[in-house]
Amino acid sequence: MKNLPIEIWGVPFDFCGRIYGSRLGPGALQLKQIRKTLVDLGYEVKAMGDVVVLDFELPESYEAKMAAALDCYMKLASATEESVRRGAVPVVLGGDHSLSFGSVSGALRAAGRDDVAVLWIDAHMDLNTPGTSGSGNFHGMPVAGLLRLPCGSPVRDLGAAGVWDRILAEVVPAEGLRSDRIGWLGLRDVDAGEIQHYDQLGLETAWTMQEVDHLGIPAVLKEIDDWLRRTGAKKLWLSFDVDSLDPVLAPGTGTAVRGGLTYREGHLLAEMLYQLVTRTDSDYQLLGVDLVEVNPMEDIGSNTAIAAVEWIASLFGKRTMGVRGR
Ligand SMILES: [Mn+2]
């Protein structure tokens, strides 16, 4: 993995979360030296700049927000598609989690759906559609969009159905993510509609915080590795929502939920994921990473950006004794 260049994309976009502020996430991660951290681990790292620039004034209408959202997803899909085609690992700094409509779509276009699996590390499933989402916020829907679930009749009739259709027509590839290729880790706040979707898809790939409590991270990772090998996936996209970490560590996020991953659980997870994608007989490699929902407006100091950069360092091989792979 050390041989693969990393391309960092900034996505200062926050129109589809509960509150504004995650547009400042890429800047906070930049200031906490995410690039230097990866360079110091021996990687070639390019800062690719920001995918979008939001208007200075806040949008006054739902239509204006969603037009900016579609523009963001389309540009980001092109960006991650190009990175993967160049043979690089894109690391996408958000921004709210709706950006994964774009980032994962681009990766699917470049790598091909039959090779790709996604691990969604998050307090939430993000498996709502406009037909099940009480808030209507698209940051709770990207997994459903990537799986191409039908819109349903919107709970809040703001025009979401038209946006959903355009995301499925213009952003997500025609066949979408395979439903046997999505897994979740860190869940502790799941909606009834999401459970309904999960059951309808016949999935058994949700590792909640209860599983982490009962089994511990090593056994959970063993189950995830078994699942990934069973599916035959060759490329793993990690979508890391910083709200998977406990709010004690990462308070600066829009939808914090108590009872998340502790500092060491989070790091052991990252360290073991690095081992899984770099072992010599590995069936699957790292395709790319989303690092989303860092919201400096909600933070205490810079704790959340620091926690996120430290987590990324562990994911890319940082070890206490300085020996990668142990
Ligand atoms: Mn999320």
Structure description:
- The protein is an alpha/beta fold and 326 residues long.
- The chain is built from eleven helices and eight strands.
- The chain has a single domain, classed as Arginase, Chain A, CATH 3.40.800.
- The longest helix is centred in the N-terminal third of the chain and has 24 residues.
- The chain starts with 5 loop residues before the first strand and ends in an 11-residue tail after the last helix.
- The model has no long low-confidence stretch (mean pLDDT 96).
- Manganese (II) ion binds next to loops.
List key phrases describing it.
326 residues, alpha/beta, 8-stranded parallel β-sheet, 11 helices, 8 strands, binds manganese (II) ion
Compile the SSE list and pairings.
Layout: E1 6-11, H1 25-31, H2 34-40, E2 45-50, H3 62-85, E3 89-94, H4 100-111, E4 116-121, H5 142-146, H6 160-171, E5 182-187, H7 192-200, E6 206-208, H8 209-215, H9 217-231, E7 235-241, H10 263-278, E8 285-292, H11 303-315
Parallel strand pairs: 1-2, 1-3, 3-8, 4-5, 4-7, 5-6, 7-8
Helix pairs in contact: 3-4, 3-6, 8-9, 9-10, 10-11
Bound molecules: manganese (II) ion.
Question: What is the gist of this entry?
Answer:
With 326 residues, this protein is an alpha/beta fold.
